[in-house]
Amino acid sequence: RIKEIGFIERNETGYFNPFLILLYNLDFFRRGVYLASTKHQSPRGIIVALQTVFYQLQFSNKPIDTKNLVHIFGWNEADFSPLDFSHFVLNFRDKFKSGTTDKSTQVLANIFEATYSTQYSYPPFNEEQSFSCISCTVKNKSDLFESLRDSFASKTYSGFFQEKAFSLNSHKFIFLPALLFIELKRFEHDPVNDVMLKNDNLFEFPEILSVDKNMYAHWADTNPDEFRKYELRGVIVCNEVNPLSRHYYCFVKPNTKDYWLKYDNEKVEKATINQVMSESFGGNEKVFYTSTGIKTTPNTKTFACALLYLMKYQIDELFSPIYEFQIPFHVKEEVDNYFAYSVVTESEYKHRRENYYTETDNFFNHNPSPTLKHDRSQTLMDFYKHLSESFSVPTERFLLW
């Protein structure tokens, strides 16, 4: 029996929910979120919201709604473009860092960050840049190794300003983090028709990724090979129902277990590595590895759009059990004893033109109303008194609906 729970399905979350599941299953990240200081955080602060969601995922027995968390991050449906996962990771990291001034949390956000250098021969200069996700081209590539080699190969461009001018550039890793996200670019823009086209070719990736020494700017032969070996621990999969509708779910390998879990909204079930690969490689056929060889069946429009690799020699540090007694009291108290709520007043409806007056999401997204918290153990009359004091309005002068 699987005791893990998932998230309530919402169309506007895109790959936010499966991305959050990957982070939740990283014990190192979850522990860091639990221990983060919330001294100066509002009830609708990013860290408080993450603590609440992670605690509910760990100890609740029913699916969790991330609608509040999405709004707190300031996102809406338009922000979840299925075509640019690397931009999404960068956006998440920046919002996570801006959500707190706690130094430990800032360090936690940096586990996404890597650096690489770019060398140009014309004009001659070197440039260093940071990134949170490696983007790999899928078109005309058979596997991840081929795509990485092409991304870091030296390229010569014909002259632009002068007939014989050229620029030779090469990319090299300076630093790679323990947590490595890789975006698989299945889509490309067609400038003629101004549409996004999907590449349907089969694209494979390994369980163990060994980063080539030549991809590093400075790699000492004395460095252990384990430093450049990464193990696959998570995959975000897109199920393309039709060209205008995509559904996202994820596979994750939790802790140091030998099995995988498939999180598909509320449904969580065990999975095998064969299932992970068969639903992730894309192409016109599904691939199954068996004891007698390789078998294929028609694909159902599923393909991986993002991979999570962890540095192999640090896996034991990233995964260690988190028990309830280790979770700070303020996190449990916040979830178990209090609920947060927002109030939409009559004046905020004054210029509203929509037909559905009870859908208040837009208020909380674009014109955040005051957010308060209240003790669950108190009575309804206590709640009325609490509102009366917060808004300086006598209890007999307002109604709740």
| Strand and helix order | HHHHHHEEEHEEEEEEEEEEHEEEHHEHEH
- Structural category: alpha+beta
Counting DSSP H or I runs of 4 or more residues, the number of helices is 12
- As a percent range, the share of helical residues equals 25-40%
Could you give the topology of this structure?
Blueprint lengths: L15 H9 L2 H9 L10 H14 L7 H6 L12 H14 L4 H7 L4 E8 L2 E8 L2 E4 L6 H9 L2 E3 L9 E9 L3 E7 L1 E4 L4 E4 L9 E3 L18 E14 L2 E8 L7 E5 L2 E5 L1 H6 L6 E6 L2 E6 L3 E10 L3 H4 L10 H9 E5 L18 H6 L4 E5 L4 H12 L10
Parallel strand pairs: 3-6
Antiparallel strand pairs: 1-2, 1-5, 4-5, 6-16, 7-8, 9-10, 10-11, 10-16, 11-12, 12-13, 14-15, 17-18
Summarize the structure.
The protein has 401 residues and is an alpha+beta fold.
Features:
single chain; 401 residues; alpha+beta; 8-stranded mixed beta sheet; 4-stranded antiparallel beta sheet; 12 helices; globular
How would you describe this structure to a colleague?
The strands form 5 sheets. Strands 3, 6, 9, 10, 11, 12, 13 and 16 form an 8-stranded mixed β-sheet that branches. A 4-stranded antiparallel β-sheet has the order 2-1-5-4, with no helix packed on it. A two-stranded antiparallel sheet has the order 7-8. The chain has helices spanning about 15-25, 25-35, 45-60, 65-70, 85-100, 105-110, 145-150, 275-280, 315-320, 330-335, 360-365, 380-390, and strands at about 115-120, 125-130, 135, 155, 165-175, 180-185, 185-190, 195-200, 210, 230-240, 245-250, 260-265, 265-270, 285-290, 295-300, 300-310, 340, 370-375. The chain contains 12 helices and 18 strands. The longest helix has 14 residues, at about 45-60. The protein is of the alpha+beta class and about 400 residues long.
